Amino acid sequence: MIVDHLGRQFRNLRLSLTAACNYACTYCVPDGKRLLPANAELEAEEMVRAVQLLIDTAGIEKLRITGGEPLLTPKFDALLPAVMQMGLEDVSVTTNGQLLPRKAKLIVEAGLQRINISLDTLNAEHFREIARSGDLETVLKGIELMLDAGLKIKVNMVPMRHKNDDQILPLLDYCLERGIELRFIELMNMGHLQGNALFEVQFFSMQEILDLIATRYEFARTDAPFDSTAARFEIPGAGVFGIIANESEPFCRTCSRLRLSSNGKLYGCLSNARSHDMNEVLQLPDALAMVKLQKMLSSALGDKQLASFSGEVTVMKFIGG
Ligand code: SAM
Fold first, then answer.
1. Which among 112, 39, 106, 47 has a CA at the least distance from the CA of 79?
2. Nearest residue CA, atom 7 of ligand 1?
3. Which of 69, 122, 240, 305 is positioned for an S-S bond with 21, CB 3.0–4.6 A?
4. 114-118 and 90-95 as β-strands: parallel, antiparallel, unpaired?
């Protein structure tokens, strides 16, 4: 077992299927150009083997499939059914939802139980200003399809001052009405936002979110799982919402996340650009691969921050949010 001095272990794997995305969100992409796949991305079969090796070596229990936009690549169609058969405690997908209507049948047939859908506003015009692509109605249709199929949904929203802070309450109402858990993600100091005055202007804190919600609802903080990234709040009789407060309430001390990028690089920490190349390991037979991987994972665990998220030049689209 690979454990550090704070008792942290890798339990949750975030797998980025591709760096390509059909959106170019202002907080993720600097120049508004939609993203292309990274050089030398792994094939679906290589990713499936990588996941199995990480289960066997690190004790991964939960898998989140992300990107880029995971639904954009045909790899998703091959990988999802395969990872659903691996006996993991939990498999989930994070998507911008634009291709959900097209992939709904595959998702339901594969037996996925949980899905996270990113949605920053219910205003169609502002939606296109933030995502710089896509269509709000298509995402909303995708959400309805997932609800009809009985999946548990979380909606991820990144509140930004003067951009979509007016959508905090409308989105909360929308989610509560449908039994969806809304997750507010504090804007992260990543990629082009590092050292950029825009970050200071747009950053909307956990306390500000709570103050705004308090104008309409009474709520109380509830327990969240030990290694959860989100602070969770219950509105009695109405539902639950969460805040991923990487700045206001960092969760580094209990972080159990490991990331595998679409081109085979392992990252032990979102706030550390250091990576560990798994490509060579994937050329080896299982026993030898696991020995090499043990060393790599010990080193990757050492990349984690001690207490707080300090931001990184690394861009979320490459290593999977
Ligand atoms: N394309 C998929 C999606 O939109 O959900 C998966 C990848 S996306 C990088 C994963 C999540 O990261 C999204 O919910 C997005 O809002 C969030 N994200 C990206 N950059 C961020 C930033 N600078 N601060 C906070 N959240 C960010």
1. 47
2. 67
3. 69
4. parallel
Is residue 97 domain-resident? yes
- Tell me if 100 is assigned to some domain: yes
Contact 117, 155 (CB under 8 A): yes
> Based on the structure, what is the number of domains in the chain?
1
pTM: 0.95
Q: Is 240 a member of any domain?
A: yes
DSSP character at residue 280: T
Q: Ligand 1, atom 19: nearest CA belongs to which residue?
A: 28
Measured from the Cβ of residue 41, the count of other Cβ atoms closer than 10 Å reads: 20
Distance (Å) from CA 317 to ligand 1 centroid? 8
**Domain-located, residue 260:** yes
The reply to whether ligand 1 has any atom less than 6 angstroms from the CB of 300 is no
User: Whats the size of the chain, residue-wise?
Assistant: 321
Calculate how far, in angstroms, residue 289's C-alpha sits from the geometric centre of ligand 1.
Answer: 31
Query: For residue range 301-313, what is the model confidence (pLDDT) as tens digits?
Result: 999 988 776 666 5
How far, in Å, from the CA of 291 to the mean position of ligand 1?
A: 33
